[in-house]
């Protein structure tokens, strides 16, 4: 018996030492995971193609994936110290698609995305050149009639709106799908009477049904903050036009916005649009989450916000959160401000890696100069990451060098590097990482940089070159990652697998 007790004591002693060592080494292991990069990742080809097919078969008439409880919206007073959130949904699971095959859907997405990028770069150039919005000439686009018939919006500061949040407007609150846009400031929605409005999935907002609806006088501070305000019978008028010909015009008012059952904000300045045209798919309007004076964030004095974008081929939803603490495992980098344009969120990016090795790209490729040119922004409305041509070529060449074992195929649309993976169920590929300040890296999942462009197994490298000096981190690369903007400390954090 004594011998058994001694053996038990010895085993317990060594087990305690093992646990202590494991706990003490855990922070070191976590620390190393932020700075050391893996060389390869695995892409689940079969799962990606299955999700692609799901987009085409989804029918909102018979499926309710979002679990929204519109009647549960409660009126609560917003406090700066409180946090609140709303559900975030992918656009293609709001309306039944009119496309018969996945390749056609991809081409439509890429066309909208190109219009978005042209619009953002136009907005930047307009600011750098000191041009007024009223001087803008509509740009010619190559969008097909079916793209316009599926209610989409794209513009200099709003874009195609690939992700939607469900927000209550008015008192009592009526729920509306609103485009989530970090590249714009003005909040707006379509309003009755509507002399020229595009199709939306919700009934058009009726101001007479809300007790909190108030028009703004022309002399108000909010009206004076508009870039191009108008005045009619003493009431403030807003008009926002975009580089691709999209526009919204109407009364500039204040209203109450409700965020599910987590709270509400009173007196939010927004546009009540009576004339609206463009590529706004299914949304009732737009939430401007840029850094300008009239953005939703500035008006509610939010110290932080975050979102997690689910896979665009997934019917799942996630959340848009305000004033909530970021995940403890976030990898952070400086959030930079370009004095030439207050809307965009510039990111402190130092480079890129492929297969765990830095790509030879000058650090200046991701910095903006004194004139405001260059730099890289993070944008919720752009899908495909755009890099300056020199940076893109270096990234692509490094990736191609390490994927010679994969069967290549011809390019598709804006993608020049594609592979035929039709005979594979899973494939080993080199990792791709963003190299952040402070020596940290954000490693992307394989499905965030090799995406299907048809349902037969063609996958393309999901980056593209831009002739503009402005680079953009798009939402395909952000998928599955909670992106946290700490506005008070000017930091942006990335935490994978937090949707």
UniProtKB/TrEMBL annotation:
SUPFAM superfamilies: Acid proteases. Residues 163-495 form the Peptidase A1 domain. Belongs to the peptidase A1 family. GO terms for biological process: proteolysis. GO terms for molecular function: aspartic-type endopeptidase activity; DNA binding. PROSITE patterns: ASP_PROTEASE, PEPTIDASE_A1. This is Peptidase A1 domain-containing protein. PANTHER family: ASPARTYL PROTEASES, PROTEIN ASPARTIC PROTEASE IN GUARD CELL 1. The active site is at 181, 379. It comes from Carya illinoinensis. Keywords: Aspartyl protease, DNA-binding, Hydrolase, Protease, Signal.
